[in-house]
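To the wet lab folks,

You asked to see what we're planning to order before we commit. Fair enough. Below is the target structure as tokens, and below that is the sequence we designed to fit it. If anything looks off to you, flag it before the synthesis order goes out.
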């Protein structure tokens, strides 16, 4: 058994540089998804400060915080591919640090900063600048329209919406909601500033739009009469205005799912020719694909291969009756929640048997086409909504990513509060994409289900196991260090690899990968632990040992620690990108986010490194202060320092050189350039 901690092997036809480029591009997109909400929060902070400046209400502390946020954005956005955003953030920082702030220029910079997110890795998450929204009801490039006179409410809702992949536009005035050219998927109307005099117009507009758009009303008057008025008009939701923005956006997302039509698959078996014609008629005008199978085995194979959103079964059958097939579906861990309709005669016995088998509905074969269509569409909508709310992964039956993330964070907080260790393991199927391509989706999914079942069966009680990635799972182990977790993970993966996975035609054996990190030793946040695990997955691929390796963590409390690179950076987004790049080159590394901590550890010799990547803007002690400590302690004789900063004036560069820095890289920087600079340095010669 080989338990390697790596991603699947790259295409053998690619050069090492090409593999690195592909891996880095993928990683940057993933890291941007992880950190984009933090970036949006920073933009919202700058916008709020800009509004204060324009109102001549200037608070020095708030201005300083906004300048700091702009500084971090200037460094990180460009690295993620938002070059215009980086330049706009740098301009905003310069303006915010002026003794007299030009509000007009600052507003222009902030508008450009927000608009810049239309470019980069994920254009689907863009935010449409409210100042540029069309006032004539023309079709916008956004999923959700927020109608409000409250800029703070708009900002909070926008941040939450963009974080889950929605694009947002906003207006300060109520548009003509019934305009045929308005194509928003959802509209949030803040009823707070709307007067009683125009409420009738608002209700009429909601009634016109509700047939094709999810309209959610936010109100301060959360009374029975208000709710009755809005829901009678067709509002998909009426929410108290003070509700948390995350809860509002979550409800809007579900409301959009109800309105939006997505392709559905209806599987059918045991139906007569007449009923088959009826199904074709009632589903012809809907976005449904009707798949009629001639045997129970074919129906089962179709479920395994393509899945379904609804199953329609005739009651009588030469091999299996409708109720018998329904029982089989209910007994399957993947399909037991799937809606099933049984159709038969007017017999009370048939009806009772069908419901006893778990059918969601029993329909008489003589039902009108209209009623048949209404009943089937209702079940399809209910299933789609249940799927969106369900915490279970449909392929493996384990918790899905959202539910797993929620539970892991809860466990991590509990462990921290009780001063207990917590271990996170990321477990994957080795070469999963190649398995899927060579052996088919059914075999690949079977291996995943076997791995998921094994992990869930082994880690019970206080532990957590759930789907995390396309090819694997996350495991949270309460009260365990990474060494203890390594032993337990090795045991379960060894047993699974030895047992193999039963498929329809054979017993297959595959290996698995596991990367482990623990709190508080490796970090205090789930994102930090995940990053350590991912690094371990990459590095252990070279080890070829039958062991589970923990992350390449270095104990900074040890009296003698040597590493390749020390990263001193307080911005988590930038640190994530740098550390991922270091992992690609197999460098050992350690990170400090506080300047004083880094100066103490490096200056006193507790930590020794070949290279220090040193940010200038740091808490407690800035980069120049850290560099001065290293020079005074004689550390620069064996350690090279490369300064990282979003400001690159000649004065700053000369100051760094005078203090002993050997290099200077301006943020945002290209990761290949950073790696090339490190390659020029003799790394690994720390005594």
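Sequence we intend to order:
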């Amino acid at each position: 058994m080989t338990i390697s901690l790596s991603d699947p092997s790259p295409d053998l036809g690619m050069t090492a540089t090409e593999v690195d480029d592909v891996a880095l591009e993928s990683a940057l997109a993933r890291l941007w998804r992880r950190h984009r909400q933090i970036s949006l929060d920073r933009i919202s902070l700058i916008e709020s400060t800009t509004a204060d400046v324009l109102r001549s209400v200037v608070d020095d502390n708030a201005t300083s915080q906004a300048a700091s946020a702009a500084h971090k954005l200037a460094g990180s956005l460009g690295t993620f591919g938002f070059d215009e955003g980086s330049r706009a953030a740098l301009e905003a920082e310069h303006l915010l640090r002026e003794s007299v702030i030009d509000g007009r220029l600052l507003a222009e910079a902030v508008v450009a900063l927000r608009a810049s997110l239309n470019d980069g890795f994920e254009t689907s998450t863009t935010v449409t600048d409210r100042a540029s929204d069309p006032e004539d009801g023309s079709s916008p490039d956004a999923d959700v329209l927020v109608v409000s006179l409250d800029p703070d409410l708009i900002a909070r809702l926008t941040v939450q919406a963009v974080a889950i992949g929605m694009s947002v536009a906003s207006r300060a005035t109520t548009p003509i909601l019934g305009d045929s050219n308005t194509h928003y998927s959802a509209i949030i109307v803040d009823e707070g500033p709307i007067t009683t005099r125009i409420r009738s117009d608002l209700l009429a507009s909601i009634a016109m739009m509700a047939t094709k758009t999810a309209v959610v009303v936010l109100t301060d008057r959360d009374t029975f009469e208000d709710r009755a008025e809005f829901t009678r008009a067709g509002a998909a939701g009426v929410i108290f205005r003070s509700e948390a923005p995350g809860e509002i956006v979550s409800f809007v997302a579900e409301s959009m799912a109800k309105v939006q039509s997505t392709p559905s698959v209806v599987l059918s078996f045991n139906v007569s020719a007449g009923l088959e014609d009826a199904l074709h008629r009632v589903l012809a005008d809907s976005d449904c694909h009707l798949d009629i199978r001639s045997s129970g085995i074919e129906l089962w194979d179709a479920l395994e291969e393509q899945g379904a959103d609804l199953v329609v079964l005739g009651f009588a059958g030469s091999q299996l009756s409708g109720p018998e097939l329904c029982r089989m579906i209910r007994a399957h861990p993947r399909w037991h929640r799937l809606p099933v309709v049984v159709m038969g005669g007017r017999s009370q016995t048939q009806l009772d048997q069908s419901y006893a088998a778990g059918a969601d509905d029993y329909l008489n074969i003589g039902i009108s086409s209209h009623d048949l269509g209404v009943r089937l569409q209702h079940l399809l909508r209910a299933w789609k909504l249940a799927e969106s709310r369900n915490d279970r992964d449909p392929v493996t039956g384990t918790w899905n990513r959202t539910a797993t993330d929620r539970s892991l964070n809860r466990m991590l907080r509990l462990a921290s509060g009780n001063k207990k260790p917590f271990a996170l393991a990321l477990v994957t199927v080795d070469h999963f994409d190649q398995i899927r391509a060579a052996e088919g989706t059914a075999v690949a999914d079977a291996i995943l289900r076997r791995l998921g079942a094994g992990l869930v069966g082994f880690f019970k009680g206080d532990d957590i196991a759930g789907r995390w990635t396309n090819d694997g799972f996350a495991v949270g182990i309460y009260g365990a260090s990474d060494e203890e977790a390594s032993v337990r993970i090795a045991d379960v993966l060894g047993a699974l690899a030895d047992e193999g996975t039963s498929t329809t035609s054979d017993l297959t054996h595959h290996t698995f990968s596991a990367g482990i990190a623990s709190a508080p030793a490796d970090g205090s946040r789930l994102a930090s632990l995940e990053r350590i695990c991912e690094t371990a997955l990459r590095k252990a691929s070279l080890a070829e040992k039958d062991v589970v390796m923990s992350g390449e963590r270095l104990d900074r409390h040890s009296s003698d620690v040597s590493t390749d690179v020390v990263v001193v950076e307080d911005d988590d987004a930038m640190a994530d990108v740098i550390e991922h790049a270091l992992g690609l080159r197999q460098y050992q590394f350690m990170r400090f986010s506080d300047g004083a901590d880094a100066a103490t550890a490096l200056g006193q010799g507790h930590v020794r490194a070949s290279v220090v990547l040193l940010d200038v803007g740091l808490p407690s002690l800035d980069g120049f202060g850290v560099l001065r400590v290293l020079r005074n302690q004689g550390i620069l004789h064996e350690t090279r320092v490369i300064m990282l900063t979003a400001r690159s004036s000649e004065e700053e560069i000369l100051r760094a050189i005078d203090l002993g820095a050997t290099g200077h890289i301006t943020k945002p920087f290209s990761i290949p350039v950073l790696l090339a600079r490190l390659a020029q340095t003799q790394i690994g010669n720390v005594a």
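Structural context that might help your review: The longest strand covers residues 607-615. Residues 1-16, 119-140, 176-181, 551-559 have pLDDT under 50 and may be disordered.

Thanks,
Computational group
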